[in-house]
């Protein structure tokens, strides 16, 4: 078993006024050769965008891009004709493939929107660009992990061009549970959204990250009410 811990206060940070962003991995002006990625997981940005502001139209190529809103409403538009809003409880994915242009704005003028922006290397390049979003309302469960992303089109959640599985879970205090890997050789990156947990004897607090690989399962114990994001990804990147 191998592990790596990224405490919340060691992340890169950029405050542009309208955008306050924390970077778990190297991004933009934050560059650390020791923190370029975790396997196929390339970007994990914890973004807060002030009212009425956002990211103007910009391109992406050959990347799987996942957005998970935590608070507020995020307005999405792209050159495929999609115009929609994602909010807490939704999951959005874009397969950039041969190229996609999109914008993301805070739909509200008075309150901030908070969301995770996640980039993942695909397992095939130059696919046709694709957009999808779901609500997790019908699949969310209490005190267990529920799947929000997989490689399978007919599976629960959205699907990606990668042998990756993402899960969310909200847990009461003093809950114990386990996660079993879906594919041999994958690693698991744990990102704690809220609360306090212990993962294989490593205590994590809000916004800490923890990577683990060369194992088949992972044990969790919660010390307080907690919300956890799991990202299982291939490690050969």
Automatic annotation (TrEMBL):
Cited CDD domains: cupin_Yhhw_N
Gene Ontology MF terms: metal ion binding
Cofactors demanded by this protein: Fe cation
SUPFAM superfamilies, A to Z: RmlC-like cupins
Binding site for Fe cation: 58, 60, 102, 104
InterPro entries linked to this entry: Pirin, Pirin_N_dom, Quercetinase_C, RmlC-like_jellyroll, RmlC_Cupin_sf
Keywords carried by this UniProt record: Iron, Metal-binding
Domain Pirin N-terminal: 10-120
Domain Quercetin 2,3-dioxygenase C-terminal cupin, first and last residues per copy: 148-233
Pfam families recorded: Pirin, Pirin_C_2
Keyword Zinc carried by entry: no
Record note on cofactor: Binds 1 Fe cation per subunit.
Family membership: Belongs to the pirin family.
Protein name: Pirin N-terminal domain-containing protein
